[in-house]
Automatic annotation (TrEMBL), chain A:
It catalyses: N(6)-carboxybiotinyl-L-lysyl-[protein] + acetyl-CoA = N(6)-biotinyl-L-lysyl-[protein] + malonyl-CoA. The keyword Zinc-finger applies. Acetyl-CoA carboxylase is a heterohexamer composed of biotin carboxyl carrier protein (AccB), biotin carboxylase (AccC) and two subunits each of ACCase subunit alpha (AccA) and ACCase subunit beta (AccD). This is Acetyl-coenzyme A carboxylase carboxyl transferase subunit beta. One of its GO terms (biological process) is malonyl-CoA biosynthetic process.
Length: 285, 262
């Protein structure tokens, strides 16, 4: 006895007959997680854009993140524009495209945010803006954020996402690392709190400056966090590098991250940490 | 190879000269400028990186702290220093010595010749990014003069970590850039063989960087090492005398302004 009657079921013959069968399923319905490679229905990404299997946070624009992160926000320095110091060919075109894509003037969104009762300086880097690379305006916006926070005695929270320094602005991108670092230092010297949240990917000159200067360093699950790129390491050392070398979880094991916080808990966790460090908190008031 | 002494040089020639085998080693340079150099080893945490040499010395009878990135001379030494690319422990050693200099109120002279911080598995695991970040953070407010001289390659964050003080000078045949010209061409044009072209675009020569106020001056080079040492000493003496006139808070404020302009 056969388990099923081939003639009565929908065989390959029938499926092939409908030449448009493939097109009837819209593309983009199924998404593969770049970290755990599990496929899932696109709606399962949810509002936080997170892999339902491994909690990896997909790369999102700064404005998308802002939507679920804060209760209110007033943006700063949204019209600063780079002087294009190297007059780099085709750079302006690249910038215009990135501006349209991200609705930002450069690779970071900055402003004063409110979450529950806490007011703080907030910066969110945008991985969609030329790979979140750090140019002069990125540096200027972050520096101004720290300067204002220092003046107004506010903590700062920064979400990092960056491929590193912006090549098109050459040495001036590099100088941003020093410029931001000294603004962070001055903020720190006044006893104010600085929290960094490392998101996918945080690398290069951003890792080697303000990303690693937080009093508290958080990261999103499975975010790539590192200094040198994997390919550069392999070419230099002629050694195969494990795939998870720069996963936030491994970086935490080596002692460079305080905690991994999934997106859905981020707002609450930040509010709690900000409250814990606020002057009004605790028995000593 | 183009002679170190040719005048009009293209950016690509300067890159070649900056990397030349004829370049002085860290120890030659240190012993040529300072007397009684005593090397101080280790980061007090886990390691002693050979790519960053540090210690105390006298400069015209004044105690100073000296830090230098070291590419090494022999093949063995070059392997040990990863051709002058520091590990995180190197940056932790340099910061330890800078904080020590602050405690004893002596200036720091940093001599830089590195293609960049070492890109390796262990360097990642030991926090290369954090080590450099911590240097930038702390050096921004140390209350002693920090003078840097780039004497060969000044590559990216690995060089900046030792060139974020009060003055930055460059040797005539040296370069300072956000990335190597090869890496730059590979990223932007997907073709690392266009490095010479990249070198022109990047404005990495001392002349260009002086125009942009990224550096404060250029050290003339000559075939005679003695003459180079003499030139360096003269510059250091002048800079130290000028910086000595500032109070610690003026010093830190001026350093702040130096980088705030970018």
């Amino acid at each position: 006895m056969q388990l099923f009657d081939e003639l009565k079921t929908l065989g390959h013959k029938h499926i092939k007959a409908d030449k448009k069968a493939g097109e009837k399923v819209p593309s983009g319905m199924w998404i593969a997680c770049p970290k755990c490679h599990q496929s899932f229905y696109h709606k399962d990404l949810g509002v936080y854009q997170v892999c339902p299997n491994c909690e990896y946070g997909f790369r999102i624009t700064a404005r998308e993140r802002l939507k679920w992160l804060v209760d209110s926000f007033s943006e700063m320095d949204d019209s600063l524009k780079t002087t294009d110091p190297l007059k780099f060919p085709n750079y302006q075109k690249k910038l215009s495209k990135a501006r349209v894509q991200t609705e930002l003037n450069d690779s970071v969104l900055t402003g004063i945010a409110k979450v529950e009762e806490q007011t703080f300086g907030l910066g969110i880097m945008d991985p969609a803006f030329i790979m979140g690379s750090m140019g002069t305006i990125t540096g200027e916006k972050i520096t101004r954020l720290f300067e204002r926070a220092t003046r107004q005695s506010m903590p700062v929270v920064l979400f990092t996402a960056s491929g590193g320094a912006r090549m098109q602005e050459g040495i001036f991108s590099l100088m941003q690392m020093a410029k931001i670092s000294q603004a962070v230092k001055r903020h720190s010297e006044t006893g104010l709190l600085y929290i960094t949240v490392l998101t996918d990917p945080t690398t290069g000159g951003v890792t080697a400056s303000f990303a690693m200067q937080g009093d508290i360093i958080l990261a999103e699950p499975r975010a790539l966090v590192g200094f040198a790129g994997k390919r550069v390491i392999e070419q230099t050392t002629h050694q195969k590098v494990p795939n998870d070398l720069q996963d936030a979880e491994r970086v935490l094991e080596h002692g460079f991250i305080d905690a991994i916080v999934p997106r859905k808990d981020m707002k609450k966790k930040l509010a709690w940490l900000l409250d814990l460090h606020s002057k009004g908190s605790g028995a000593n008031g | 190879m183009v002679s170190l002494l040719d005048k009009k040089k293209t950016a690509a020639q300067i890159v070649a000269n900056a990397r030349s085998e004829e370049k002085m080693s860290a120890y030659e340079l240190i012993n040529g400028i300072f007397s009684d150099f005593m090397e101080l080893h280790g980061d007090r945490l886990s390691d002693d990186d050979a790519a960053i040499v540090g210690g105390v010395a006298k400069f015209n009878d004044m105690p100073v702290t000296v830090i230098a990135t070291n590419k090494g001379k022999s093949a063995e030494e070059r392997l040990r220093t990863h051709f002058g690319c520091p590990e995180p422990s190197g940056y932790r050693k340099s910061l330890r010595l800078i904080k020590q200099a602050e405690k004893f109120n002596r200036p720091v002279i940093a001599l830089v010749n590195t293609a960049g911080a070492y890109p390796g598995k262990s360097a990642e695991e030991n926090g290369q990014g954090e080590a450099i970040a911590h240097n930038l953070f702390e050096i921004s407010s140390v209350k002693i003069p920090v003078i840097s001289m780039i004497y060969g390659e000044g590559g990216s964050g690995g060089a900046l970590a030792l060139a974020c003080g009060d003055r930055v000078w460059m040797f005539e045949n040296s370069m300072y850039s956000v990335l190597s010209p090869e890496g730059f061409a590979a990223i932007l044009w997907k073709d690392s063989s266009r490095a010479d072209e990249a070198a022109e675009v990047m404005q990495l020569t001392p002349e260009k960087l002086l125009e942009q106020h990224v550096i404060d001056g250029i050290v003339p080079e000559s075939r005679s090492h003695k003459r180079v040492f003499k030139a360096v000493k003269k510059i250091l003496q002048k800079e130290l005398t000028d910086l000595d006139k500032l109070t610690p808070s003026e010093l830190v404020e001026k350093r702040h302004q130096r980088f705030r302009q970018f």
